[in-house]
Specification:
The structure is a homodimer. By secondary structure, chain A is of the alpha/beta class. Chain A has twelve helices and 20 strands. Helix content of chain A is about 35%, strand content about 25%.
Chain lengths: ~400, ~400
C-alpha cells in the first residue's frame, strides 16, 4: 500500500478512447492497493488553439494581459480533469476534479511562467481516506492576488512532481507519447535504445538539451525532494525509464548515457572586442533574456551559440550599441552533446570523440565540457553521421535479440 | 454618471470581430461617464461541443457527475471573459476578468441548474473606483463545497440581472442576436413588430411561452429588484425593447402585447379516470419532473398539454401504473397564446378571438385564460393562418411608414 501520482500528457488525453485507456491505467494502479492521485494535461491541440485565439487580440506585452492569457489557456486542463473523472466513474472508480485554485497550488505572481511556492496536500489526503481519486489539473496555479497562473509549456510535469513531493509519494509516473528516454533521437538514430535508468542530474542535462520528454523544472524538484520518477507510454504499456538519485552499487559509472543533437543554434564570433564592449554584449543578452551556450573568450575574441530565433534581435541591438567590431555568424552548425555522470573524468570518453572524428571524417569546430556533459560543434552536414558513429562507439546501439 | 451592466450573449461573442464590436459598445457606454460591468456568455457553439464531449463519457445521472459537467462547461465563459478583457485593452480600456468563484457568485448546491444565493459586489465596486471594467463570466457560480456550479441554459442573463441588482445598477442591457422582443415570431409572422416597452410580468409570460430572448429567471429577478432591463442587438445598434415595472400613466392598458406559438406539445386526454388514478398521474409527472399546461378536468376526463420530448416517458410510466383507462393523444396541435397585462378583463380581446376564428375558418379546440394570458389550442394546419389573423386584428402588424 503506497501513494502514487500518475500524470497523463496531452497525447494520452487526446481523445475519448485515450482518456478511457488512461483511466484503465489508474484502475490497475488502485488494484495494487495504492492511493492514486492523477494529474492531467489539456487534450493535445487544445492549448495551441487557445493561444491562437488569444493572439488575435493581444501581443501579451504586460503582466496584466498575461493574467488573462493564463485564465484562458488554463481551461484546457480544467476540461480534461473533468473528463478524466467522468471516465473513471464510468469504470466504477470514485473520483473528483481539483483545479489549481481549489487545492490550492500557490505560485508566485509571474504570469505565463509562474513558479510553485506551496501546495497544500490536505484535500488530497482527505480524498485518499475516503477512497476518492483526486484528478488535479496540471499546469495551473493561483497567486496571492487570487488570479490564475500557469507554469509554462510542459508545466503539468512540474505539477505532478510537486504534488508527489508534497505527498511524499512513493513514485510519480509520467505517461507520455514515448515509452521512455532514449540514448538519442530515434528519428535520427534508428539504433537508439531506451535508457532503463538515468540519474536526476543526467535527466536535467538531457532535458535541457532538447529531449522534450520532461520539463526540466520537474526533474529539479524531483531531485530536491527525492521523488521516484518514471517516464512511460500510456499506449505501449512497456516499462519505461526510471529517473533515480544514483546508480546503486555503481557509483563510478561514468559512461556516456545519451547523445543529443541541437540544430537550431547559430555560432556568433565577435573579433576585435575589448572588455568594455564584452560587457555591453552581456547587457544586451540580459536585457533581451537571451540564453547563450558554449561561450569561449580569448584575448580579442568572444564566441558563443545563440538560438536562431534570438539571432536577429541580438544583432540588431548589437549594431545599435557597439562599434568597431567584426561579427561573424555561422548558421550551418549542429551542437552534439554527450551526457553521463562524471564522463569528464573518464579519459576514454574524450579519447573516443577524437578517434571517431578521424574515422568518420568529421571536423570538430569547438568542444566544451562540464562535469557530466561534453558538447561538440560540427558542420551541419557532418552531424548526423558523426552522432551515429559516436552512438555506436559508446555501446549505445540497441541490441537486437 | 451611473452604473450599468452590459451582457453579451453567445452570438455577440461568436468571433474575434464580434467581440471587438461588443468592446466598442462598452467603450461608448464608458464615454457617457458610466461605470460599466460586463457579463459574457460562451462563444456560440462552445457550450454545445463541450456538452457533446461530456456525453461521450457519462449520462450524468448523479449530482457528483453533474459537478464535473459544470466544471467543464463553465470554461466556455472563462475563455470569453478573458478574450473580452483583451479586446477592451486593445482599444485602450482597462479591464479585468472575474470568474464566478473569484467574485464570488454564491449558489445553492444543485449542479447544472443552480440558483444564485448571494453576490458580493465589493470587488466590482473597487474596480469601478479604479476605473477598471470588470468582465464577469455569466452562467457560473460556486457552492458552499467550493465546487463550480452553472445556472442552466441562458443562465448568463440571470447572472447579468443579479449583478445589476447587487450593484443597484441604473440599467442592465442584454445584447443578443435579435434587436428586441417582437409581437410574434417574425419567421412566421412577417408583419410582426418590435415591442418598445413591456412589463416584467408580460415578459415573464412571453419568455415562458417560447420566446427565447431572455431566461425567465432573469426577468423574475429584475422584477423583484426593479432592475431596468433592455434587450438589444449588438449588430443593428437600434433601440431595442425595454422591460419595465408598469406603463406610466396608462395603468389600464389591457391590449394584447404579443402572440406566441408553441408547436412541440401534444394533447393527452385520459377517459374513464377516477380520483385515485388522477393522483397517480400527478405522481408520475412529479417523479419525472414533467411540466404540463392547459389542464382541464371534468367528471371522468383529464386533459393536458405535454412537451413532445416527455410524451413517451410519461405514457410508458402510465401504462405500468394505471389500468382500465382510455388514453387519447393528439399530436398535430398548436398552442397559441396571447399575452398582455389584464387582457382577461378586456371583453374585446376575447370577442376578437371568436370573431377571427369564424372569419378565418379556424376551429378552437380548447381555450384557457389567466390574468394576462389566453391560450388557444388549434389544429396544426390552421395555426399559422390564425395567428396572422389575430396579429392583424389586435393591431400588432408593423406600420410601414
Amino acid at each position: 500500500m503506497g501513494k502514487v501520482v500518475l500524470k497523463f500528457g496531452g497525447t494520452s488525453m487526446g481523445s475519448v478512447e485515450r482518456i478511457l485507456n488512461a483511466a484503465q491505467i489508474v484502475k490497475e494502479e488502485i488494484a495494487q492497493n495504492n492511493d492514486v492521485a492523477v494529474v492531467v494535461s489539456a487534450m493535445s491541440g487544445t492549448t495551441d488553439s487557445l493561444i491562437n485565439l488569444v493572439k488575435s487580440f493581444s501581443n501579451l506585452n504586460s503582466q496584466h494581459e498575461l493574467a488573462e492569457y493564463d485564465s484562458i489557456i488554463a481551461t484546457g486542463e480544467t476540461i480534461s480533469a473533468g473528463l478524466m473523472v467522468l471516465a473513471l466513474e464510468s469504470i466504477g472508480i470514485k473520483a473528483t476534479s481539483l483545479q489549481g485554485w481549489q487545492l490550492p497550488i500557490k505560485t508566485n505572481a509571474v504570469h505565463s511562467k509562474a513558479f510553485i511556492s506551496d501546495i497544500n496536500p490536505s484535500v488530497i489526503s482527505t480524498l485518499f481516506q475516503n477512497k476518492i481519486v483526486p484528478v488535479i489539473t496540471g499546469f495551473q496555479g493561483i497567486n496571492d492576488n487570487n488570479r490564475i497562473t500557469t507554469l509554462g509549456r510542459g508545466g503539468s510535469d512540474t505539477t505532478a512532481v510537486a504534488i508527489a513531493a508534497s505527498l511524499s509519494a512513493d513514485k510519480c509516473d509520467i505517461y507520455t507519447d514515448v515509452d521512455g528516454v532514449y540514448t538519442a533521437d530515434p528519428r535520427i538514430i534508428p539504433l537508439a535504445s531506451k535508457i532503463e535508468k538515468l540519474t536526476y542530474d543526467e535527466m536535467i542535462e538531457m532535458a535541457s538539451l532538447g529531449s522534450k520528454v520532461l520539463q526540466v523544472r520537474s526533474v529539479t524538484i524531483a531531485k530536491e525532494y527525492n521523488v521516484g520518477l518514471n517516464v512511460l507510454s500510456s499506449f505501449s504499456r512497456k516499462s519505461g525509464t526510471s529517473i533515480i538519485k544514483n546508480y546503486d552499487g555503481d557509483m563510478e559509472n561514468n559512461n556516456v548515457r545519451g547523445i543529443s543533437l541541437v540544430s537550431n543554434e547559430a555560432r556568433v564570433s565577435i573579433n576585435n572586442i575589448d572588455p568594455e564592449n564584452t560587457q555591453k554584449v552581456y547587457e544586451i543578452l540580459q536585457d533581451k533574456s537571451i540564453t547563450i551556450d558554449i561561450v569561449q573568450i580569448s584575448e580579442n575574441l568572444l564566441e558563443f551559440n545563440i538560438p536562431n530565433t534570438e539571432l536577429d534581435i541580438f544583432l540588431d541591438s548589437l549594431n545599435k550599441t557597439v562599434n568597431n567590431i567584426e561579427i561573424n555568424v555561422q548558421k550551418a552548425i549542429v551542437k552534439i552533446s554527450l551526457v553521463g555522470m562524471a564522463i569528464k573524468s573518464n579519459p576514454a570518453v574524450m579519447n573516443t570523440i577524437f578517434s571517431e572524428a578521424l574515422k568518420c571524417n568529421t571536423k570538430i569546430l569547438k568542444l566544451a565540457s562540464s562535469e557530466m556533459k561534453i558538447s561538440i560543434i560540427v558542420k551541419a552536414e557532418e552531424a548526423e553521421q558523426f552522432v551515429r558513429c559516436l552512438h555506436s562507439a559508446y555501446g549505445l546501439d540497441v541490441t537486437i535479440s
